Amino acid sequence: MNDCIFCKILTGEIPSNKVYEDDLVYAFYDINPAAPKHILIIPKEHICCANKLEEKHAALVGHIILTAQKIAKEQGFAEDGYRIVNNCGENAGQTVFHLHFHLLAGGKFDRMV
Ligand code: AMP
Ligand code: ZN
Question: Domain segments of the chain: what residues?
């Protein structure tokens, strides 16, 4: 049984506010925003964290970063700037163990996520 909440978001079992989707990735608004715009980008494949990435995932990780850039352009904050964050493991504060990249923008966002 898969208890991963982000896998449940992917199946629709848990609702989310979709920002973008394609064959490989899904992006949605963070439920507890740390910035005026706080979006999470996740792979559709369940990978627990950056520690479990392998060479075969290189294109997927590149695609996630390019997705962040695409969303930034679409939402109009590409030129003003944004932050892309990945937390790996307990000491970094990772709370959901399905790989995700935070995309933060829209003004001041001093709080790290
Ligand atoms: P991290 O601390 O890097 O593991 O980030 C997990 C993020 O997932 C946090 O910023 C949470 O606010 C966010 N989060 C947890 N549950 C949900 C949910 N159901 N919908 C949207 N975001 C969520
Ligand atoms: Zn998952």
Answer: 5-105
Distance (Å) from CA 30 to ligand 1 centroid:
6
pLDDT digits (tens, 9 = 90+) for 2-56: 899 999 999 999 999 999 999 999 999 999 999 999 999 999 999 999 999 999 9
Q: What token pair was written down for 100? A: 């995700």
Q: Tell me the CA distances in angstroms from 66 to 61, 77, 82, 108, 110, one per residue in order.
A: 9, 15, 13, 23, 24
Query: Does the model's pTM come out above 0.85?
Result: yes
Summarised one tens digit per residue, pLDDT across range 91-100 is 999 999 999 9
Note the CATH number of domain 5-105: 3.30.428.10
Q: Would you say the CB of residue 31 lies under 6 angstroms from ligand 1?
A: yes
Residue 63 falls in the annotated catalytic set = no
Q: Indicate which atom in ligand 1 lies nearest the CA of residue 38.
A: 10
Of ligand 1's listed atoms, the one at least distance from the Cα of 14 is: 19
The tally of CA atoms less than 13 A away on the side-chain side of residue 18 is 11
